[in-house]
Amino acid sequence: MKKIALITAGALAGGALTISLQALADKDTLGPLPLNELRTFAEVFGRIKQEYVEPVEDKKLINEAIKGMISGLDPHSDYLDPEAFKELKEGTQGEFGGLGIEIGAEDGAVKVIAPIEDTPAQKAGIQSGDLIVKIDETPVRGLSLSDAVKKMRGKPGTKVTLTIARKQETKPLVFTLTRAVIKTKSVKFKMLEPDFGYIRITQFQEHTTENLAQAIETLYRDNKQSLKGLVLDLRDDPGGLLNGAVGVSSVFLPKGSLVVYTEGRVEDAKMRLTATPQSYLRGGEKDPLVQLPADIKSLPLVVLVNTGSASASEIVAGALQDHKRAVLVGTQTFGKGSVQSILPLGNAGGIKLTTAHYFTPSGRSIQAKGITPDVIVEDGKLTAADNAMRVREADLENHLGNPNGEDKAPARPVRRIEPPKEDKNAPKGKDEKDEKDDKSDVNPRDPNPKTDFQLGQALNILKVQQILSKKTH
Fold first, then answer.
1. DSSP β-bridge partners for residue 20
2. Which part of the chain has CATH 2.30.42.10?
3. N or C: which end of the chain has fewer CB within 10 A?
4. Residue 394 phi, psi dihedral angles, 5° rounding
5. What residue spans in the chain does CATH classification 3.90.226.10 cover?
6. What is the pLDDT of residues 30-53, one digit of tens each?
7. Which CATH number, 3.40.50.1820, 3.90.226.10, 3.30.2270.10, 3.40.50.720, labels domain 187-472?
8. Helical H runs in 421-472?
9. Residue 415: what pLDDT?
10. Domain 95-183 in CATH: superfamily?
11. Among this protein's residues, is 430 annotated catalytic?
């Protein structure tokens, strides 16, 4: 046991010494090695190897130790084994092998939110509201969403069988699908009404900026080259790639405007990103923003945010708010104001490490605080209990403090619009009852100002801006 302890301590000390020497070369000394702590680690390692109830591989113990070391730093740093590292890259690139189904959880079951257009799922006839009962021979009830996703994803060309329960069908439906390369677009759009467009960004991926540019061009073309206002929906957008956030902001801001700056311990972590191609393009890419209509820089704009708007979403919202380019509508954002760098490792895995804080153009830190909308509008479908259950950055264990010393939401003057209270005693008409009965058949992702109170208020604000603009002229 002493030999194991000495060998392990020696290996760890050697690794730490290598790091220390590299750091010294960068003039950033790590300080003396914590030999007592390394001896304790080696002793625990040896005890587990000798006395744990079942044999444990050295690889598993070391991997778990690395995970614990990194995850204990803050909620967003993580160790990625080779499989997790591959999945992360697929997620940011928006391309993977699968069926093309957006799913959610409902009462322990996996429900189809919507099939993605032109995918095996849509072509086979999978519908919104379907409940997935089995994936191949595995019952779905009790599986986590991530486990269900893993079972449906796989190598393109391979087959998977889904057993579906559908409303008004007496027997389960069985679909055998062939996996294909799924290319997801993070940007969805439509005309809400004549002259008023809607764009939703679900996540900031590699191609988000060009997808947004294509959406704007299509909206202008469909509305005879003229728009009077635009709603940019960032609700429940968890963030993603930083250059995507800079690109989206650059669509609406004057060229050269400061979008975000970052501060960290190493020089590479200190950046000032502006509305210029150098800040949002990757090497060799063509600038997708050069063909956009010139008036997109002044088009009346409302940005929708909520508690689920985090990280890159908050960068966009903060930049547009600081430059007084848009009216922010919704509820307080998540409050994730830190930057994670993906650092590859020699084992084909990597680490996601927090390396900097980011700040809005006016110097605000969003960390553990979030962005306060200009107009507070609660989601009319959520109860007080629902809102209380929503988690923000400040609720997470080991979250970083606000570098400006402001962990609470800023006291800024805002307007508040309350959703109408439902009169439970009011008689319900036939249409309303039918609408409630058919709720499971409607794609909840389809934007509808009549049923989405926040979106309805955003559209009203655009119309008021249009009226005021005419009066000014």
1. none
2. 95-183
3. C
4. -65, -15
5. 187-472
6. 568 889 999 999 999 999 999 999
7. 3.90.226.10
8. 430-437, 453-472
9. 86
10. PDZ domain (2.30.42.10)
11. no
CA distances from residue 247 to 183, 274, 333 in whole angstroms, order as listed? 20, 9, 20
d(CA 200, CA 235): 8
- For residues 311 and 76, give the distance between their C-alpha atoms in angstroms, rounded to a whole number: 11
Please give the model's pTM, rounded to 2 decimal places: 0.77
Known catalytic membership, residue 27: no
Give the ranges where 72-144 is alpha helix by DSSP (H): 82-93, 120-124
Indicate the residue type of 167.
K
pLDDT of residue 425: 59
The tens digit of pLDDT for each residue in 405-429 reads 876 555 555 788 888 876 555 555 5
Q: Pick the catalytic residue: 77, 128, 279, 311?
A: 311
Please identify which of the residues 130, 322, 374, 452 carries the catalytic annotation: 322
Lowest mean pLDDT among 60-64, 163-167, 432-436: 432-436
For residue range 179-221, list pLDDT tens digits in order. 998 877 789 999 999 999 999 998 898 899 999 999 999 999 9
Q: What's the one-letter identity of residue 319?
A: A
CA 121 – CA 112 distance, rounded (Å): 10
Strands (E), 194-305: 196-201, 229-233, 258-263, 271-274, 301-305
Which amino acid appears at position 200 of this protein?
A: R
Catalytic residue from among 250, 257, 336, 365: 336
| Burial degree of 298 (CB within 10 A; 0-12, 13-18, 19+) | exposed
Question: Coil, strand, or helix at residue 142?
Answer: coil
Q: How many CA atoms lie within 13 A of 148 on its CB side?
A: 24
Is 369 a known active-site residue? no
* Beta strand pairing call for 109-115 and 101-106: antiparallel
In this predicted structure, the answer to whether residue 26 has a pLDDT above a threshold of 70 is: no
